[in-house]
Amino acid sequence: MRICRFRFGRKHGTHSSMKSASHLALTAFAITVATATAAFAGPSDGTLDFYWIDSMGGGSTLIVTPLGESILIDSGNPGDRDPSRIHRVATTVAGLKQIDHLITTHLHLDHFGGAAELAQKMPIHTVYDNGVPERDPDGGNNAAWPLKIKAYREMKVSKRIVVHPGSGIPLNQVQSGPALSLQFVAAKQQFALSRTVSVDPARCADPSPKPTDTSDNANSIVSLLQFGRFRYFNGGDLSWNTEAQLVCPIAQIGSVDVYQVNHHGLDVSSNPLLLRALLPNVAVMNNGPAKGCMTEVVQSLRSLPSLQAIYQVHRNLKQPENNAPAEFCANNGETGGAHLKLSVSPDGISYTVTVPSTGHKQTYATRF
Questions:
Q1: pLDDT of 170-201, one tens digit each?
Q2: Whether residue 188 is found in the same domain as residue 334
């Protein structure tokens, strides 16, 4: 497999290889083979696997380590749809029997709503969150909050841990393999300060600050996962001003290979200050057919000199000009249900993104 090192063309924002005739003329046989290839979890081949599950604009990212340990970041919306989709990918595609670690980045329904129903479908061992408050974390006096949070508060799990910046998940290590770690860099607008790299104040000026975000989005848990040279960022729905604080005046994270686009690609997030600090090669957007993938975010991503590709869980049906090529989108219609997959090689020096529904498959080199 050729390792991809291309950049977006400045005229159209995509590389010519994205528009190749071979991708646009996929055969049923190729789709079948690609789907079968993508159906195995880490323990079968020593890879670190990511699955972005379609929760129609909610959050649900499943990670399976090379030793088969599972991490689910957010659980989508309440109701049967999202928990069933997570359960299907976890059990049928990834071969899991339980969720070892559930990280709930913040307490909005599209990120915690499916957890209780998922817990009825398969065991969930440890839950990591900011704690469950008695009152609405958006700061209002929502009388319905106790009922809204009841199922999540009372669901059956083995253990609950309140996240503190600088802590992490103690993951099992592959003997003689690359180091694997997941660190919580930020939570509730507090930062780990694990790095001491100061940023030039002139580079910290935000030319277009947003109004103060009083919602729980600003409190989102930020995770940095590393596997050898590979680095992955997940910030939940972290919003604009908190994103700036994450990288200025102290650079908390440094550059990454893969950026899971904050807040589904809504323009109240993905501050260019953050993007220029992360400098991802690949961006993955867990958006919906009518949610996310907004113009300001897409333009900011495409302007990054490091960026090689954007992948979407859904094609944006409202603003088609913002979309990646169809073969880079797991779901190109309204109904959805298809997922994206990324596998990091056992040595951590390359990773392959697969779109089983379209047959697309591309390998990228890590940057470090």
A1: 999 999 899 999 999 999 999 987 555 667 77
A2: yes
Cα–Cα distance for residue pair 3/125, rounded to 1 Å:
37
Instruction: Output the CA–CA distances (angstroms, integers) from residue 214 to 23, 34, 74, 346, in the order listed.
Output: 44, 44, 21, 42
CATH label of the domain that carries residue 80: 3.60.15.10
Strand ranges for the chain from DSSP E: 3-4, 48-52, 61-64, 70-73, 99-103, 124-129, 159-162, 168-169, 180-187, 190-191, 222-227, 230-234, 258-260, 282-285, 309-314, 329-331, 340-344, 350-355, 360-365
Hunting for tokens 């660190």 — which residue is that?
183
For position 230, which CATH number holds? 3.60.15
What are the tokens at 318? 């409202």
Range of the domain at 296: 179-201+216-344
- C-alpha–C-alpha distance, residues 336 and 217, integer Å: 25
- Widest pairwise Cα distance in the chain: 56
Please check whether residue 348 is in contact with residue 229, taking contact to mean a CB–CB distance below 8 angstroms. yes
Total count of domains within the chain: 2
Q: Phi and psi (nearest 5°) for 255? A: -80, 155
Q: Report the candidate in 100, 90, 95 with the shortest Cα–Cα distance to residue 44.
A: 95
CB atoms within 10 A of CB 134: 9
pLDDT at site 30: 37
Residues 232 and 329 in one domain: yes
DSSP 184: E
Task: Tell me the pLDDT tens digit for each residue of 36-55.
Answer: 344 444 556 899 999 999 99
pLDDT tens per residue across span 352-368: 999 999 999 999 999 87
* Residues 89 and 185 reside in one and the same domain: no
